[in-house]
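Hi C.,

You asked whether I'd gotten around to modeling the 391-residue construct. I have! Everything is below, sequence then structure, no commentary in between.
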Amino acid sequence: MDRAWRFLTVHGLDVLIVVAALESAIGTALRTDAEAPHGTTLWIEMLVIAGLVLLLLARGRFPFAAPATFWIGVAAASFLDGRLISSQAGIFVAGLFAAVLLGSLRSGVQSRAGVVIVLVCAGLVVANVPTSTPGDLLFTPLIFVVGWVAGFALRERNRQAGDALERAERAERERETAARLAVAEERARMARELHDVVAHAMSVMVLQVGAVRHRMPASAERDALGNVEQAGRNALTEMRRLLGALRGGDDAPELAPHPGLGDLETLATDVRAAGLDVRLHLAGDPVPLPRALDLSAYRIVQEGLTNSLRHAQAAHADVTVDYALDRVRIEVRDDGHGGSPRRDAPTNGQGQGLIGIGERVKLYGGDMSTFTSSSGGFVLRASLPLGGDQA
């Protein structure tokens, strides 16, 4: 059944066209009026009427020519036999379908030419019927014009649907581009921050090696320490050179120490000043964190509160930091109900801050989730391991 349904969904109109062609041919053969054809003429008319209907199978490749040729053909056939066209229901249905096709053409010129063809050809067919009346000559073509109008309305709807689909695809491409930019910017920011952390540690090591070397008498060990000191200095130089490539032209060096979880109270105070009541909760015993990990944890909370500020109806936010044995867990939960961003809410330029935070979590092998709570509000959760791949 599923296969048959899929076939009818794709080829249903083609099946109906073939059925209409068969009905028209069989109906021609069963005619009993005084002008009914016989012998060779009957076979010719059966082939003609079936062939005219089957022309509509080519509507995909020839969207204008196929229905236009159908109408011109039926008008011409009506001159050979006045009742050939008007006596068959299948040809009537095919004529309506051809009128709809002409009305739905994207080209305005072709569509307007189509309504002229429909009116003229339908009028000729009715005029060639021996028993037609002036009323038939007036109202019958109008029936097919109604079909053309339906096709024209369908064209407008398809055009609007196509425009909407194009806008959706463009928005999706822009969203993907913005996400890639957010990831790249966050990675560059992490590289700059990690440079500061690693450079400080390396500077301390180089200074300590230099101090030990100067206290030692000349020996192979002192020369080895000199090589270590020189290698450290070279590494610091290369790191600064790479940092210069990562840092934009407008980026100034950060002279203040990088914040960490110990600075959450200051962050909360700033956010409260922006209009959001923030409450901090601490679980477990705080432990010293590596500087890079401590900074990333702070950035996660910062982005969570920034996101909370964007909820127009958010009044409160709860920040929970849970120190476990092997990881630190962070949760930022607000009571907002969505809506437009606040004017005083900080932004990250591209609106993709959570994507950038996800890169930080991925760097440390942690996990992160964001969702809307069943009781309302937005929740950001992150878990960062304290061991393993730490920077």
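If it helps when you're writing up: The chain has a mean pLDDT of 81.

Thanks,
B.
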